[in-house]
Amino acid sequence: MPNKTDAMLKLDNQLCFALYSTSLAMTKLYKPLLDELGLTYPQYLAMLVLWEQDGPMVSEIGERLYLDSGTLTPLLKRLEASGLISRIRAVEDERRVHITLTAAGRKLKTKAAKIPDCILTAAQCPVPELMALTQQVQALRQRLVA
Prior knowledge:
two-stranded antiparallel sheet, mainly alpha, about 150 residues
């Protein structure tokens, strides 16, 4: 007869695995959609931040994406090399770098607008259910990082 420890250590009972494997499936779903835009998934996330607010500092983008500068800086350099963003050092403090969209970066938003509908279709869930799930996962994240 299985005991409580056995049940607790079953892979399918692990929230971490459910989140991890779902994240892998989601990233796999996004890949062909993002390939059409010439973006990786992390680059897409950075562009989402910039489409919400053009001109944030690198540190602000890092806070939104939960990424450190060692991960974020190369990602932003690749976006700059692709002509989607510009990195502008603040005059008052050269350590502060603002990220702004180029015309190409702003134009890419129009092409990206179809992605959420594709994800909704693949998820086969009503929008309110997906929004509730998103809010639950965000609340969990906030508790874990606190």
